[in-house]
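My current task is to audit a protein record that another person submitted. I need someone to confirm that the token line plausibly describes how this chain folds. Take the sequence as given and treat only the tokens as open to question. This is what I was given:
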Amino acid sequence: MRVVLQRVSKASVSVNQKEVSKIDAGFLIFLGIEERDTEEDVAWLVGKITKMRVFSDSDGKMNQALVDQDGDALVVSQFTLHASTKKGNRPSFIKAAHPDQAIPLYESFCEEISVEIRKKVGRGIFGAEMKVTLVNDGPVTITLDSKNRE
């Protein structure tokens, strides 16, 4: 699984010009799922994301996690995070999981985040053409890959 994690002051996602989800301060999480991903990848990423200390404490230092800030989360599925650009100029998405595998892992990921932060998680609509609006706070943008646990 690959994630692009953005600390935001607000974010929303719309489908067919209708807002389907929005959050205030917290994380906008773009989630890419590949064929090799399992529940173990979900657990590892959820642990990293919810405990990642990139929110400011009272001294203005990035020392607090999403759970410390009572922050929100919005998860948007994004198969293009598994684009291979090795050959030519047209990306290949062959490693991205098919919906029958990806949807249950996406749902599990959202549920696990919700449990950890003790609140409802905003969601996009899996497989839909979405418009995402955000105000990146910082900016703070971090990439994570459950297959490359650095």
Q: What stands out?
A: Residues 144 and 150 are 8 Å apart (CA to CA). The chain has one domain: 2-145. The helical segments are 39-51, 66-69, 99-117. The radius of gyration is 15 Å.
